[in-house]
């Protein structure tokens, strides 16, 4: 059985954190470089798509009382997972763009007339697509193999 190990060293992790901050900076710059219409109108129209979502936004300096844009900024909400940003940054840093996850299937025992009398081992390699949230039933992915 072969298991792949990814070892994060301090340098790669540090680089991943900087990549995530860079992505956040680019997002911030893109928000402010929206077309000629006022920022608040553009952002309000974007947020209208998510009528059922609870969203709180504040864009502006923290020390001043004047915000460039805000909507429900005082609403107490559970924050989204920032760990996704770090995980994505680490994956982008450590894995090449053409990287493919490998999931291996091992069979033990004997097969006879399409029936396996033994065990099936599924050894995952970190593929994020192997999750119940992407398929209607747990066996859907296995049947596609």
What report would you give on this structure?
With 145 residues, this protein is α+β, with helices and mostly antiparallel strands. It has two domains: 10-94, no CATH class; 104-144, no CATH class. Helix content is 34%, strand content 17%. The chain has a two-stranded antiparallel ribbon with strand order 1-2. A two-stranded antiparallel ribbon has the order 3-4. Helix 1 (10-32) packs across helix 3. The relative contact order is 0.13.
Main features:
two-stranded antiparallel ribbon, alpha+beta, 145 residues, 2 domains
> Could you list the spans in which at least 5 consecutive residues all have pLDDT below 50?
1-9
Main β sheet profile: 2 strands, antiparallel
Side by side, the strands of the main sheet go 1-2
Count the strands? 4
Evaluate the radius of gyration.
23 Å
What pattern of helices and strands is seen along the backbone?
Answer: HHEEHEEH
Oligomer: single chain
Tally the structural domains.
2
The level of helicity is: 25-40%
